[in-house]
Hints:
The chain is mostly beta strands. It has one helix at residues 89-95; strands at residues 14-19, 40-41, 45-60, 70-84, 99-104, 107-112, 124-132, 137-148, 164-170, 180-184. It is built from 1 helix and 10 strands; from the N terminus they run E-E-E-E-H-E-E-E-E-E-E. The strands form 2 sheets. Strands 1, 2, 3, 4, 7, 8, 9 and 10 form an 8-stranded antiparallel β-sheet that branches. It has a two-stranded antiparallel ribbon with strand order 5-6. The longest helix is centred in the middle third of the chain and has 7 residues, at 89-95. The chain starts with 13 loop residues before the first strand and ends with a strand.
Amino acid sequence: MSVTTTNLVQGPATLYTGAFGATEPLDSVVNTTPAASSWTDVGGTQDGVKLAIDQTYGELEVDQIVDRVGSRLTKRNFTIETSLAEPTLTNLSLVLNGGTSASGSGYATFEPSFASSATQPTYKALLFDGWAPGGAFNRRVILRRSLSTDATEIGYTKDKQTLFAVKFSGHYVSAAIAPLHIADQTS
């Protein structure tokens, strides 16, 4: 087996958030920081940023053949997981899918949304830039419509850093727009 060392990847990613429908950077500028007018850097992360794609296939079978004769995709989940290393109220709002923030002279406050369960959530777009195979190239991943869908904790202990663990789930956008887009820089 031949291994091309320029195809090996290791290193951190930078996570950004934007409004659902935020203007996406062109693929041709995958090596530049996304526009601050649409995308906000969430700050440091710990234990990486992970994109997971879970696909479920239904099995097709017939009486006359013992082997699986085919499969059909019946469900797909895209998730982005990380631990936000900067436990700010802004990041808490991101992890809890919104809420009410206020500030005054010398203080800031946050209260999570407490409207009825029938309230439509505020979806976010996520973008992260990491390394791509091929040398010092970038990979950009965009999850176009997402919500934070798992529990989070805020732990304060004397020997551990306070983090917001978060798992964002991707959602259907439209028949013409894929929920996930990945672009690699190649030169």
